[in-house]
Target: Asparagine--tRNA ligase
Amino acid sequence: MNATISEVKNYVGGEVTIGAWLANKRSSGKIQFLELRDGTGFIQGVVLKNEVSEQVWEDAKSLTQESSLYISGTVREDKRAPSGFELTVTGLSVIQIAHDYPITPKEHGVEFLMDHRHLWLRSSRQHAILRIRNQIIKATYDFFNDNGFIKVDPPILTGSSAEGTTDLFHTKYFDRDAYLSQSGQLYMEAAAMAFGKVFSFGPAFRAEKSKTRRHLIEFWMIEPEMAFCDHEMNLRVQENYVSYIVAQVLKNCANDLKAIGRDTTKLEKIKAPFPRITYDQAIEFLKEQGFDDIEWGDDFGSPHETAIAEHFDVPVFVTEYPTKVKAFYMKPVPGREDVVLCADLLAPEGYGEIIGGSQRIDDLDLMKKRYEQFNLNDPSYKWYLELRQYGTVPHSGFGLGLERAVAWICGLEHIREASPFPRLLNRIYP
Model:
């Protein structure tokens, strides 16, 4: 019976054939232990010299790291094995013997591993991280589909900036200027006016010359947008969504979390509702903690976000930031023009902002004033203004950076491991 490693639990006592690669091998006299992987998991194949043909024994001896093969054997339960099962080998067929595989079990430097990212993905740790990433993506689709959202795909090539910034990748669109999208949000607002509740999931690009452990040049964003939704409703969706994806990872990725050594007791605490503090309260707190470099009106840096987040065991919302440090489209707090109805969700354990969201300006006259203040006179912004002209309603939304969420949930030291092929300031290979 042909099977994958993830399916062997259904064939205990029976014989299966698996297409696999050799991850590692050790031998002890008349026994060879083959650590096998097939993309769905890892399993140990045990080759007993007295129970297989001489050809099978010699073929097993010839296998090198990352050699490919078809292997047959009897599935037996073994609670000591990481997968809970083991394979008593009865036969194998070599597809290719790999020579001089560059990533050996010894220690390698980060740059070496990044240069060989196309091969590094095969390691048990990287494999587990990207399986967790996949589970987060699946949970995202499940959460929004189950809650009445429609997926809409915004364009990647745009004629303007979503946030009025200059950190954009410029290109030519025939005889016009164009940019790689830094956010699909403006387009999602248009979609929300048609469908009510929408979400997108796609790549975003920031030409920000940053080398911190939290930044990528190319990353993936989940961006929901909701019509007839105020700031408070928006926060509830965010905390329920984050709680859901964490719960799904805990439920479906126990072996992967174990493989990367993640302390799951910290994740088990992640349940809505999340604590909230205002920007004003955050400034006061930081002053008390000895951060004399921060003044009201300043945006927070990584040390400030970490200090705030360390005060809590779960993600914390920081709300009502100063108008001047946030995007032009955010709605002011009623009766207070100097702050806006927004929130950043800071992850615990020093991972910083994973979500940014706000209630959007729905008043046409106020948005016109914002256009003047931010010098948004380019015709490419005309359509966005028209959303306030034809049937405007209160609406809100947010964006979650997938890689930052993966880094936090997995407990990674650097965001580069959260992406299959990360794009960093000085890296576009492989």
In short: The domain at 117-418 is CATH 3.30.930.10 (BirA Bifunctional Protein; domain 2). The first strand starts at residue 15 and ends at 28. The chain is about 30% helix and 25% strand.
